[in-house]
Design goal:
CATH topology of the largest domain: Four Helix Bundle (Hemerythrin (Met), subunit A)
Largest sheet: none
Number of helices: 6
Structural class: mainly alpha
Helix content: over 70%
Radius of gyration: 19 Å
CATH superfamily of the largest domain: Cytochrome c/b562
CATH architecture of the largest domain: Up-down Bundle
CATH class of the largest domain: Mainly Alpha
Distance between the termini: 47 Å
Shape: elongated
């Protein structure tokens, strides 16, 4: 073992960040009703939205912005096949209808994300900004409807 890791303060410096990371992941999983896979996809969306907040108005950062939008598209595709948190307590036709509504909303989100990417590819950051601002509203309404 290296001298660095054998020192107690060094072990703490390694363990504390790992513990915090696991705790944060646990909180997201709990918020998503214990569905860690869905929590992972929502985490990708949150991180991308934060990054886009800093890059969306900077044409020189469009390549990075596009990467984040594509990550959101991928996360949306994966999350679309999962059940939303509120569906866990439902049964029968009510659950089927609720999950279908969720999937339809995710498809609409995919369309918005494709438009977002198109604006960035064309270098139209003003239109991309409008889409980004609209995404925040979409997120709020969807979370209200599909989360506990």
């Amino acid at each position: 073992m290296s001298r660095f890791v054998s020192r107690p303060s060094a072990r703490v410096a390694l363990v504390v960040p790992l513990f915090l990371m696991l705790a944060v992941c646990g909180v997201y999983a709990w918020q998503e009703g214990g569905n860690p896979e869905l929590a992972d996809q929502m985490s990708v969306m949150r991180r991308s939205m934060r990054g886009l907040r800093r890059s969306i108005d900077k044409p020189e950062m469009n390549a990075k912005s596009i990467e984040m939008v594509v990550a959101m598209q991928d996360a949306t595709q994966k999350a679309k096949a999962m059940e939303p948190t509120k569906a866990k307590g439902m049964e029968g036709a009510k659950k089927t209808k609720f999950v279908a509504e969720y999937r339809a909303e995710m498809i609409d989100l995919q369309k918005v994300l494709l438009d977002f990417e198109r604006h960035l590819v064309k270098g139209d950051n003003k239109k991309a900004r409008k889409v980004y601002d609209g995404l925040k509203d979409i997120q709020s309404k969807a979370h209200e409807k599909f989360q506990n």
